[in-house]
Amino acid sequence: MSEAQQNSESSGWEYKGGTLHCNGLSLEELRLRLRQKYGHLGSPVFVYSAGILRENVMKYRDALQPLESRGMLSYSLKANSNPYLITELRDAGVAAATTVSGNEILMALKCGFLPEEIIFNGNGKQSWEVEMAVNRGVLLNIDSVFDAHRLVSISRRLGSRAKVLLRLNPVISVQTHPYLATALANSKFGIEMEQVEEVLKILSSAKAHGNNVSASNLIELRGVHIHIGSAISEVEAYVEVAKAAAKTLRHIQNNGWPEASTINLGGGLCIAEEIPVIGKDICNGRGPESDINENPKESSDSSTATINPPTPKELVAAVLPYLPEEAVLILEPGRSLVATSGVIMTDIIGVKRNGDKEFIVVDAAMTEVIRPALYGAVHQVAYVTCPHEQETAEFDIVGPVCESGDFILQGCQLHPGSSFVIWTAGAYCSSMSSNYNLRPHVVEVMVTSSKDFKVIRSPQTFDDLVKKYKAQYFSVPSPS
Ligand SMILES: Cc1ncc(COP(=O)(O)O)c(C=O)c1O
User: Fold this and answer.
1) Which of 13, 149, 295, 384 is least crowded, fewest Cβ atoms below 10 Å from its Cβ?
2) What is the per-residue pLDDT across 110-158, written as a single tens digit (0 to 9) for each?
3) Is 79 a pocket residue for ligand 1 (Cβ < 6 Å)?
4) 141 lines ligand 1 (CB under 6 A)
């Protein structure tokens, strides 16, 4: 059991006396302590709740329980690759890690996953990444005809058996932002169904020419993988996926790979208040009680983005009837495991008006939360401490980055207090953060009890940013 598991008293986000608390720790106190420790680098800050991470894992483990050892929960590292978080998830019972780069494989290994517990996915794997995955015995998703050729030639050269799944594109459209859909007819991901036969031929030819390993076993085809996209709110889409996966699995079994038994249905479940809507959204300047709604119902107000997201249990129950009895089912969520565990706490720099628009400028920006600018995702915003004033007005909350697209949330009805939290920032925020405008990566903390927190990523300093450049490029040396 990790330290956080032993120490946490209450889990999650809760307002007490008008101030937001994480696992019982006041965010105002946290803010103060970070300011004392790091000065101006103490804000903005990613704050994570270890308790929520564990609860999210439990929901998936419960959902997969009917499958016993044939159900596997794999965490998609791309959602958040902070090693403390990954280790926390592993300790809570996540069985595998889904990776999309060689460095993510190395990170998964560093966090204690065994090579056989790692899945390597990607439409453009580089040779060194494939070599490392094959050498170590990582499970690879074959994404295309060229990927199959490369894998066979690398396995031959290394004399190592490769374990693989076929990543399929069965063309299933879902209600999500086009940038988040990965199985449309023109998506860059996966093998289109008409090309499955060609890929199987390439893999079969590898069976005949193996050298150092048994000739019939150079490629071990274990099954199929389909990931149709992210922020998906329709369980019906997963039923389509399960049907397509089961059909192709049967085809593979009947065409020389009788041992193939794995169906990986990817990730993609959406979470509450996280449906991408392009354009303007309303923030209600939410008060203490209404701030976190674990099970939001479909909103009657069409301008808000809240929906009732499917649970992992509903997802598994919906797909189970369509899976072959002996199949191993892998689910590889990212967002729905980690998004709700984290917020970005951000201070207000100032309030200004231009034309008929009022802006609240905060110290967080698209460098920490790029999703609104990238695909119109909505991250709701709430007070750290609720202001006494009842009067509210409409504001756009924007960051200090020199881009007009640098907004956090537009059209918020609220009273400008002194600091905010940006919700559901546990996924695709830290891992997508950048140094644009030479802004440093910000501090990240995991709240471990009502009294304590751990710094799980130190803030970058200016020196961290410049040390990758040679000293002779600078006219003025860094002060030692
Ligand atoms: C192959 C694959 N699996 C799983 C995921 C995780 O998706 P999500 O974070 O939406 O659950 C992704 C993310 O895009 C992915 O590309």
Assistant:
1) 295
2) 999 999 999 999 999 999 999 999 999 999 999 999 999 999 999 999 9
3) yes
4) no
